[in-house]
Design brief:
The protein is an alpha/beta fold. The chain contains 13 helices and 14 strands. The strands form three sheets. The protein has an eight-stranded mixed β-sheet, with helices on both faces. 41% of the residues are buried.
Length: 344
């Protein structure tokens, strides 16, 4: 990838708890392309949110601890830093939309003042200038009667409007990167579509990169150009969105696809859940983290961690099925055991 806006290498994060040390993120690598959307998918507890929160310095330390890794913006490693060239990283360089806007906004301040505060702190606006700009941002976020709404409090907003207000706050300083952590959680499908359309419109207008964290593969298909699949604190597969969906290389990705409903009336597909539970990250498995749940597991999967195998120029999966010594046909496994259309 030429000139990524953010490049993360070998990121590892641990948490000290009463039960021991949780290895929440284990050697994560990825690049974020300028002006594109990178989706990070996986079930709850796989390390998606911890990864981005650690990059932004939002992981509480203690109990958290970054044990290795770098996150390069240009030639500057932002791990452990608060500023780049005198500008705060949080807000001015990287904006973030949190999962639950109701608990992320201050209930004692009106919406306009909360957005204005970002501009006052990071851009040196006067209170009057910042509030006027907050109204403009609410209008950009498709909130009707923005001047009136700016004077209202979070409890006066619906869930969809709160999410739009969070977006307005996140883009106030026009950061080059926007992190959207489950931006459509708890919203009905109509509002979800509107929020996604808004994010794509803002991306086109501002040229920002988006890191999208979600469980919803439908959202991924609509928004992303590149996808990371996380499991047990590691990236198990990454690639262009079309290849992830139609040429999945890891059994976990195949399992996610098999559990995804379709709105195609001609498709006869049985939704197949992934049996079992994720591994204990107090003591991560020696081999593949997905071994205990994988329908295609081999003895070597329990004994040695799989290396990344290149499936195409931009597509790789960490799975022993792709080793040259393996006799199983991965393409046949993909089609036989996980119902879906054959890749064209």
């Amino acid at each position: 990838m030429a000139d990524p806006v953010l490049s993360v290498k070998n990121l590892a994060v641990e948490f000290d708890t009463y039960g021991g040390t949780v290895q929440a993120v284990r050697g994560v690598d990825f690049d974020v392309e300028r002006g594109k959307t990178l989706a990070i998918v996986g079930e709850s507890g796989c390390g998606k949110s911890v990864t981005v929160q650690s990059i932004m310095g939002l992981t509480p330390m203690p109990p958290g601890r970054i044990t290795s890794g770098s996150a390069m913006m240009g030639d500057i490693d932002i791990i452990g830093r608060k500023t780049i060239n005198g500008e705060d990283i949080r807000g001015s360089q990287i904006g973030m939309i949190f999962q639950d806007p109701m608990t992320s906004l201050n209930p004692t301040m009106n919406i306009g003042s909360q957005i204005a505060e970002t501009l006052i702190v990071h851009r040196g606006y006067s209170s009057k200038q910042a509030f006027a700009r907050a109204i403009e941002l609410l209008d950009m976020s498709k909130i009707p009667e923005a001047a009136k709404r700016a004077k209202q409090y979070p409890f006066e907003f619906s869930g969809g409007m709160l999410q739009r207000a969070m977006i307005a706050m996140a883009i106030a300083c026009e950061p080059p990167i926007l992190i959207a952590d489950e931006p459509t959680t708890a919203l009905d499908v109509t509002i979800q579509a509107q929020i996604l359309d808004l994010l794509m419109e803002l991306q086109r207008n501002n040229g920002m990169s988006i890191i999208l964290i979600t469980h919803d593969l439908g959202v991924v298909a609509r928004m992303a150009e590149h996808v990371l699949v996380m499991y047990a604190g590691q990236i198990v597969e990454h690639g262009p969105v079309d290849e992830i969906f139609y040429r999945s290389g890891h059994p976990y990705t195949m399992g996610l696809r098999a559990a995804m409903p379709t709105n195609d009336p001609n498709a006869e597909q049985r939704l197949t859940p992934i049996d079992g539970s994720p591994p204990d990250l107090f003591h991560p498995p020696v081999g593949c983290g997905y071994f205990a749940r994988c329908p295609h597991a081999m003895r070597i999967c329990a004994e040695q961690p799989p290396q990344a195998h290149q499936l195409s120029a931009a597509h790789a999966a960490k799975c022993w099925l792709h080793h040259e010594a393996n006799t199983q046909q991965v393409a046949q496994i993909n089609l036989r055991d996980h119902a879906g259309e054959e890749p064209s």
